[in-house]
Design a protein that fits this description.
The chain is α+β, with helices and mostly antiparallel strands. The chain contains eleven helices and twelve strands. Helix 7 runs parallel beside helix 10.
Length: 670
């Protein structure tokens, strides 16, 4: 249940993290798209508006060019020049000039007056000729500037015409005589209502409008859409930016509403054609774009959630498989292999674990086989030890009999010595005793042969025991080497888990640096770290078991070495015993020969008492030697018995160690 909760928690965390990241990403993309669309529309609005303003300025300039062209014609009019020629008919020439002025007025719209003001003489207007005493323009600014700049067209400031009451703009040009001298100024009064009509006909997008202002901010041509600025722009904060830097556009906020302010400067008049465009020109279009972005975000968010859930489920399923496999390993099941279907680091981790399991399983199988051989060897050693113990017991019994016989022999010889003085009277008894001695000697000789046979058998058993012990020691050493290999592989697994843990830690650090975008990967990295820790715990358990096996193997090797030493000592004791038996046999043979010789010389015993006495003394010495040797052989036999008991004990310990090793290996399912 806990595992399921953990998996659900991982799934929910990853899914929520991916949803949050996806939502933030889509929100960010939507915001950036909206922002860029707004900036693009603002730039497009400014560019389009400036183009419209420049187009309006171009039309305005073309209109003024028509006026200046007419002034150029008047500047070169010969009738005007002839007014200064006394030889010409002055009145008639004035009429010619007036006709020319009238023709210009009639040919162009928007002209209130066309006139010529002479430096010395009358003022000729398209409608009348006035004496200079009644009307003179020589005190007007436009007249003075034209006189000072004879090669330029002069544009006056707008003013109210005294005659018509209309707002007019005067364009003037100096006139020179045939000799290039200044003779007067021609001028055209343009009714500003004509320009106003032209400006009003210019459409600045849907809600924008255009006004024309002079350099002081006074609105020369106003617009009926202007409900904000009145007749002057200089009091508004955007005016300084337009006037001082001559920049083409700026922004102005009025009562929370953004207005784009654009301008272009007419080269002839110096007037500023100013356009005002409200932000709602783009908000309506942005609203449509915003709806489109919202729909796109909703669609991609839905698709992203579906893809995120599928991806998260895939990852958690693979982690679940690895987790189940590692738990089986921890319980000792080394037959199962971890199977994952992902083609990424998770599959690589599973393959590494499977490779490690294959190596461990192979080594444990070798250890199991070795432990079986060690168990069989230990059983063989125990069995041979029991057989050897039985053989040594038989030898001890035989030696005891020899010892008893030697004692009896010594007693008999003592009796013979005591009765040697009455030997002549007891020849029959001597003969009988000699026969008994002969029999005992033959028995002793036979026992010596039996003892040698037993010792030879004991030597053979000792050799077999020594070989088995050495073979067991070799097997245990091979098993120890295998355990070392397992330790090395376990160290490799520990290294892999530690490296995996380190990589997971680095991934968590990088995910933390990535912020919200890295939370999903941080969760995966944390689960990989936990998996690595579980792998490390399982490896540590395996190493602990192997360490215990290794320690017991070391104790077994020590026991084998001690057993070998004991067997070597036993071999030495057996060889000594064998030598003693050989000496006994060699001693018995002269005894038998002597007894036979005595038997043959029984008839001569009376004559050779002294010789018999000496021989009896020799026999007594030999009997004592035999008794002494028998005691030594008995002691050696007891030592051999004790050694075999100890060997049996070690064999039992070896058998227990092998059984314990087998039980430990049975914990693993190979």
């Amino acid at each position: 249940m806990v595992s399921n909760k953990k998996r659900r928690t991982i799934f929910v965390k990853m899914a929520l993290t991916n949803v949050v990241i996806l939502l933030l990403s889509l929100f960010f993309v939507g915001y950036i798209s909206h922002k860029k669309s707004k900036n693009a529309m603002e730039n497009n609005l400014e560019i389009t508006s400036l183009q419209i303003l420049k187009q309006a300025d171009k039309g305005f300039s073309e209109y003024l060019n028509k006026m200046t062209q007419e002034l150029t014609i008047l500047n070169k009019n010969v009738d005007i020049k002839d007014l200064e020629d006394p030889a010409q008919d002055y009145k008639k020439t004035q009429q010619y000039v007036q006709y020319a002025l009238k023709s210009i007025k009639e040919s162009l719209s928007g002209i209130d007056n066309v006139y010529y003001s002479a430096e010395h003489g009358a003022v000729i207007i398209d409608s009348e000729i006035t004496d200079e005493s009644k009307l003179s323009f020589r005190d007007k600014d436009w007249y003075k500037k034209a006189k000072e700049n004879t090669d330029k067209f002069i544009y006056s400031e707008p003013y109210v015409d005294a005659v018509t009451g209309n707002n007019v703009l005067t364009i003037s040009k100096a006139v020179t005589g045939y000799n290039g001298e200044f003779i007067g100024v021609v001028g055209i009064d343009i009714n500003l209502s004509e320009i106003e009509t032209y400006i009003h006909d210019v459409s600045l997008l849907d809600y924008g409008y255009i006004v024309i202002a002079d350099n002081n901010g006074n609105i020369v041509i106003n617009n009926e859409k202007n409900k904000t600025f009145g007749e002057n722009l200089s009091g508004f904060e955007f005016w300084d930016a337009l006037k001082n830097s001559n920049q083409e556009n700026t922004k102005w906020t009025n009562n929370g509403e953004l207005t784009f302010v654009l301008q272009t400067i007419d080269e002839k008049t110096g007037w500023r054609i100013v356009g005002f465009v409200e932000e709602k020109e783009i908000t309506e279009h942005l609203s449509s774009i915003k709806n489109t972005i919202f729909i796109a975000v909703a669609v991609f968010f839905t698709l992203g959630i579906i893809a995120s859930l599928i991806l998260t489920k895939t990852i958690t399923e693979q982690i679940k498989k690895i987790n189940i496999g590692v738990r089986k390993i921890a319980t000792g099941n080394l037959r199962e292999r971890i199977q994952v279907s992902s083609k990424d680091e998770i599959q690589e981790l599973a393959e590494n674990l499977n490779t490690a399991l294959d190596s461990i399983s192979g080594l444990l199988k070798e250890i199991d086989s070795t432990s079986e051989e060690m168990y069989d060897s230990a059983s063989g050693i125990a069995s041979m030890s029991e057989e050897t113990h039985a053989a040594v017991s038989e030898v001890a019994n035989a030696i005891n009999e020899v010892s008893n016989g030697s004692t009896d022999q010594a007693t008999a010889i003592s009796n013979v010595t005591n009765t040697v003085d009455g030997l002549s009277n007891r020849i029959d008894d001597v003969d009988k005793n000699i026969n008994n001695i002969l029999n005992l000697s033959e028995v002793t000789d036979k026992l010596s042969d039996d003892g040698l046979k037993v010792l030879n058998l004991l030597i053979e058993k000792s050799v077999v025991t020594k070989q088995n012990t050495q073979e067991s020691s070799s097997n245990v050493k091979e098993m120890t080497d295998s355990i070392k290999n397992i330790n090395q592989i376990s160290d490799v697994i520990s290294g892999i888990t530690e490296q995996t843990n380190l990589l997971a830690l680095n991934a968590s650090i990088e995910a933390a640096r990535a912020g919200e975008l890295g939370k999903g990967f941080a969760v995966v990295a944390e689960e990989i770290r936990k998996l690595a820790e579980e792998s490390k715990d399982s490896t540590d358990k395996i190493k602990s078991i192997i360490k215990e096996v290794n320690q017991k193997s070391i104790r077994f090797v020590d026991s084998m070495e001690e057993t070998v030493n004991i067997l070597n000592e036993q071999d030495e004791s057996i060889n000594n015993t064998k030598n003693i038996f050989i000496e006994i046999a060699e001693s018995i043979e002269p005894l038998v020969e002597a007894i036979r010789y005595i038997s043959n010389l029984t008839d001569k015993m009376n004559n050779d008492k002294e010789n018999v006495k000496k021989e009896i003394d020799n026999i007594s010495v030999i009997s004592q030697d035999v008794a002494s040797v028998s005691e030594e052989v008995t002691a050696s036999a007891e030592e051999v018995t004790a050694t075999m008991d100890e060997l049996t004990e070690y064999a039992d310990k070896l058998d227990g160690i092998a059984e314990n090793l087998k039980e430990k290996l049975n914990k693993f399912e190979l």
